[in-house]
Amino acid sequence: MTVAKLNPAPRPVSKQRLRLWLRLLRAARAIESELRERLRKEYAITMPQFDVMAALARRQGGMNMTELSRMLMVSNGNVTGIIDRLAAEKLVLRQAPANDRRSFIVRLTPKGASQFAVVAKAHEGWVDELLADFDAGEADHLIEMLGGLASHSRGEKQS
Known about the structure:
Layout: H1 3-6, H2 13-43, H3 47-58, E1 63-64, H4 65-72, H5 76-88, E2 92-95, E3 105-108, H6 110-130, H7 136-153
Antiparallel strand pairs: 1-3, 2-3
Helix pairs in contact: 2-6, 3-6, 4-5
C-alpha cells in the first residue's frame, strides 16, 4: 500500500462546512418532526398554531396580522388561516382597533393563555429530553456559536 492510501487527503473545508450544514439541517428537522408529532398527539394542535400562540404570549397587548406574519416569517394568508382555527376554538380574539377598522389586533384569550402555558411547559420538557446529551456548558457554547452563525448569515457585524 502506498502512503496516500493510508493517509487520504483531508477534505476541503468547504466540503466539511457542507457536511456541517446537512447535519444541522437533519438534526433540526428530526427534532421538529418529533415536536410536531407530540403536539398533535398530546394537545391536538399543530406546530404553526403553537408558534402563533407563542408569539402572542410574548406580546400580551396583542399584535396585528402583519406584525404576526413578519415575526413568524409566513404570509398573511397563512396566519389568517391559523388565526381562524384558533378563534374558532376560542383561544384567540380578533379586535378591530377604534382608529383603524381595516386591521385587527389579535391576542390570546384567557383560555388560550392558560392552554398555551400548559403546552409550552410540555414543549420545554420535550426539548430538554431531546437535547439531554448536552450539558449546560455545551449548550451555552453551541448557543453562542450558532448565534454567531445566524448573525453572520444575516450580514450583521460581529462585536
